[in-house]
Amino acid sequence: MSDDWPAWATQRIEIHGWDATWQQQTAALIADLHPLLERRLEGPIGHVGSTEVDGVAAKPVIDQQAPAALLVGSEPADDPLVEAGWQLAPPELDQRAWRQPVGPGRR
After folding, report:
1. Is residue 3 in some structural domain?
2. Which domain holds residue 25?
3. Which long-range contacts does 21-26 make (Cβ < 8 Å, 24+ apart)?
4. What Cα–Cα distance (Å) separates residue 52 from each residue in 46, 74, 92, 96?
5. Which helix (H) or strand (E) holds 64?
6. pLDDT in tens, 20-50
């Protein structure tokens, strides 16, 4: 593994029992993301992944998909995400470009 990867990228994966707050966490993340991306969005920001399914144990990671024009590697799109605490992840990590590290009030 690369020494350049952020610490969260190599953390041990843990499966947690279903958490009813995942839906609320998703709504909060979408509310945070929408103003950052609204000029570039080509559709709604969606909750994807196992935390989307009620009652299913999952990694406590809220995955979202934002269909946007010129998102990855586009300086105008990158700037607001970086300013909001998001990090561009190496593509070889898992083919998902952006991650927001755990911060205050988030798991």
Report:
1. no
2. 14-99
3. 22/51, 22/52, 22/58, 22/60, 22/62, 23/47, 25/62, 25/106, 25/107, 26/51, 26/52, 26/62, 26/64
4. 10, 29, 25, 17
5. strand 63-65
6. 999 999 999 899 889 988 888 888 998 888 8
